[in-house]
Design a protein that fits this description.
EC number (chains A, B): 1.1.1.83
Strand content of chain A: 15-25%
Largest sheet of chain A: 10 strands, mixed
Radius of gyration of chain A: 20 Å
CATH topology of the largest domain in chain A: Isopropylmalate Dehydrogenase
Shape of chain A: globular
CATH superfamily of the largest domain in chain A: Isopropylmalate Dehydrogenase
Oligomer: homodimer
Structural class of chain A: alpha/beta
CATH class of the largest domain in chain A: Alpha Beta
Bound molecules: 3-isopropylmalic acid
Mean pLDDT of chain A: 97
Domain Isopropylmalate dehydrogenase-like (chains A, B): 5-349
Protein name (chains A, B): D-malate dehydrogenase (decarboxylating)
Number of domains of chain A: 2
Distance between the termini of chain A: 17 Å
Strand order of the largest sheet of chain A: 2-1-3-12-11-4-5-10-8-9
Family (chains A, B): Belongs to the isocitrate and isopropylmalate dehydrogenases family.
Cofactor (chains A, B): Mg(2+); Mn(2+)
C-alpha cells in the first residue's frame, strides 16, 4: 500500500477550522479510491508561532518539509502582525525555496453556485490560471532611501528571466494540451512596462509557435480584467506573471461565486521539491472561531494534491464529491447563501466520496 | 466672452470618429451654458505621423501644447506599430512632461445601461478612481541584459516617492470632501511588494489622519478586484498607484456597462501645465471606419474638461445631456445593444445640451 507523507500547516484564523476537513477528505478519498494511506504530520507555524518565537516558521523550516510528498497549507495572516512578515516568513519563502514555479488555479462556476455575473451560463466560467510563482514582481528586490523624510524614495524591482518566463509559458501550453483545452491567453502590459513585459511577450510568442494545436492570444492586463467580466467564455487557460496572476485569480474566484471555493496548487513540476496546496482565501479573522468558514477551497486543493501525486482516481473522486456537495443547497456555508457549518460540509464531502467507492 | 483654447489630438482608429463629436458637444455646451467660446486647434499626431515622420509627436510637442487651456485627446495605437512606441511617444510622455499626476476616472452605471453584474441596483455602481499618473510602476525605469540569450534578464523598477504618494492621496481625500463622498479606499499590495507598498500604506495612513470626516480603508489589490464585482456598493473613492489604477479603471468601465462610456481626466491640479482629457478606451481598429463607435466616453471627458476649467454650469449641462442620451434606447451604439451611429449619438447630445439652455 502506497503511503503519502503530507506536511500539514493549519495556519491562522479559519485555517485550523478548514484544514482538518481537508485532511479528513484526503484520507477518505485515499482510502476508498486509491488504496492509499495518508500519513499527515502537522506543523504549528504561523502568527502564534511568530508571536512566541519571533519567526513565522523556524529557519530550518524548508529543510524539515523537504522530505514530504506534499504540503497542505492553510492561510497565514493576523491583524496583529504586518502582512509582509507573515507572508515573506512562510508562503513566499516556501514558493521560492522549493522553486514552486507554477501556481495553478482553476476558476470554475460549479453547478448550483450563483456567481455575480448576470446572464452567464455556468459552463462559460471555466478557466485555469497558470501563474508564475517565483520571480517577477514578487522577487522581493528593492529598498527605501531617505526613510521617513520628505525626500523618501522606495523602489520595487520586478526581475524576469527568460528561462523563468519560458518554463511557465511552456507549462501553460502543456497543461492546455493535457487538459484538452483550446486556447492560452497571455496577460501582458508591455505597452507601459516597457522593459520586462516585452520580454514576456517575445518568449510567449516563441513558445506558442511550438504548439500549433493550441490557439493563443495576448491581452493587456487592464483589458483582461474587463474581458473576464464581460466575456468570460472567451478565456480558457490564462498564463500570467506573479502579480497579474494574483490579481486575476481573486477576480476569477469572485466570478466563480466565492473566495471560499477557490483552490490553488503551488507546483514544482520537476518534483525535486514538495509542492504546496492551499486555498486562495486569507485567514478571515472576521469569521474565525465560529465554525462557519467554507472548507471547500481547501478540500479542492487537497484534490489537486492527489492528482499531482499521481492519484488521479482518488483526486477525481474527491472532486466529484465536492461538486455533489456544493450542488446541494443544504450543504452550503453562508458565503454561498446557505447555513451549513464547516464541519457539516466537510462531513458531507467525506460521505459523498466514500459512497462513490 | 471667455475663450477656451483647446488642443485637440484626434489620434488613431476610432479617435478621428469620436473626437469631432466631443468637440461639437463642447462647443454646444459652452455656447448655450457658459457664454464661452471654444477655440480648437487640431494636432495630427499618432500612428500615421509616426509612420511618416518617425515619431508619434514632434520633439517639441509638449512645448507646442503648453500654452493651451486644455488638451482633448483620442486614443493612440495601431496594430502596425509596437504599443511601447505609441504609448511612450505620446500619452505617457505628456502625463510626465505636464506633471499630470492625477488621473481621475469615474465609474458609474448610468440609468438605462445594463452592466454585467446581476442584482446590482444602478446606484450601487458609483465610484471615482484617483489614479497616480506620473511615477510608480510606469516610471519607465529598467532594462534588459543578455538580450536574446538564454541567460536574459529584464528588470522593471517601480519608483515611488513620498511626495508623489502624498499629493495623490491628498487629492483623493480633497476630492471626496468636495464631492460629498464618504469613503476613500486605498489599493495596496504591501504584503508581497514589500518595499514600495509599505511606504504607500504609511503615507496613506498619515494623510487619512488629516481627514477625520472621511472614512478610509486599505484593501489588497487582489481582494479589491473581487470586491468590485461582489460588493461594488462598498466602494466610493478609490486611490491607487499607476498600474493598479489602470487595472481597476478598466474593470470599473466594464462593470459600468461599456468601455465606450468611460471617461478620464489627466490633471495637473497646480494648473502650471494644461490637463488632458481622454476616453479610457483604445483605438479599436476592429471597428474603426464604420461610424459605430460610442462617442460618449470622449464627450464625458469633455464635460470633465469644462468642469476643471471652472465652467461648472456648462460641464454639468453636458453631463446631463449625456445621461439623457444614454437613457434613450434609440440613441445607443452597438456596445450598449443599440444601433445608433457615432454621429447620431453625438448629435443627440448636442441637441439635448442646447435644449437645456
Ligand atoms: C499572501 C499573498 C502573498 C499571496 C500572493 O499574493 O501571492 C496571496 O494573495 C495569494 O494569492 O496566494
Ligand atoms: C495606453 C496605456 C499606457 C494607458 C495606461 O495604461 O495608462 C491606458 O491603458 C490607460 O488606462 O490610460
Amino acid at each position: 500500500m502506497r503511503e503519502l507523507n503530507i506536511a500539514v500547516i493549519p495556519g491562522d484564523g479559519i485555517g485550523p477550522e478548514v484544514i482538518p476537513q481537508a485532511v479528513a477528505a484526503l484520507e477518505a478519498a485515499a482510502a476508498s479510491h486509491g488504496g492509499l494511506r495518508i500519513a499527515a504530520e502537522s506543523f504549528p507555524w504561523g502568527s502564534e508561532h511568530y508571536l512566541e518565537h519571533g519567526h513565522v516558521m523556524p529557519d530550518d523550516g524548508p529543510e524539515r518539509l523537504a522530505g514530504f510528498d506534499a504540503i497542505l497549507a492553510g492561510p497565514v495572516g493576523d491583524p496583529r502582525i504586518p502582512d509582509t512578515v507573515t507572508v515573506w516568513g512562510l508562503i513566499l519563502a516556501l514558493r521560492q525555496a522549493f522553486d514552486q514555479y507554477v501556481n495553478l488555479r482553476p476558476a470554475q462556476l460549479l453547478t448550483g453556485v450563483r456567481g455575480p455575473l448576470a446572464d452567464v451560463p455556468p459552463e462559460s466560467v471555466d478557466m485555469v490560471f497558470v501563474r508564475e510563482n517565483t520571480e517577477g514582481e514578487y522577487g522581493g528586490a528593492g529598498g527605501r532611501v531617505h526613510r521617513d523624510r520628505p525626500a523618501e524614495v522606495a523602489v520595487e524591482t520586478s526581475v524576469f528571466t527568460r528561462s523563468g518566463i519560458e518554463r511557465i509559458v511552456r507549462y501553460a501550453f502543456e497543461h492546455a494540451r493535457a487538459a484538452g483545452r483550446r486556447r492560452v491567453t497571455s496577460a501582458t502590459k508591455s505597452n507601459a512596462l516597457r522593459h520586462a513585459m516585452p520580454l514576456w511577450d517575445e518568449v510567449f510568442a516563441e513558445v506558442a509557435a511550438d504548439y500549433a494545436d493550441i490557439e493563443h492570444d495576448s491581452c493587456l492586463i487592464d483589458a483582461l480584467v474587463a474581458r473576464m467580466v464581460s466575456r468570460p467564455d472567451s478565456l480558457d487557460v490564462v498564463v500570467a506573471s506573479n502579480l497579474f496572476g494574483d490579481i486575476l485569480t481573486d477576480l476569477g474566484a469572485a466570478i466563480a461565486g466565492s473566495m471560499g471555493l477557490a483552490p490553488s496548487a503551488n507546483l514544482d513540476p520537476t518534483r525535486r521539491s514538495p509542492s504546496l496546496f492551499q486555498a486562495i482565501h486569507g485567514s478571515a479573522p472576521d469569521i474565525a472561531g465560529r465554525g462557519i468558514a467554507n472548507p471547500i477551497a481547501e478540500i479542492w486543493s487537497a484534490a489537486m494534491l492527489l492528482e499531482f501525486a499521481g492519484e488521479q482516481e482518488a483526486g477525481a473522486a474527491l472532486m466529484e464529491a465536492v461538486r455533489e456537495t456544493v450542488a446541494d443547497p443544504a450543504r452550503r456555508t453562508t458565503d454561498l447563501g446557505g447555513s451549513a457549518s464547516t464541519a457539516e460540509v466537510g462531513t458531507a464531502v467525506c460521505a459523498a466520496v466514500a459512497a462513490r467507492a
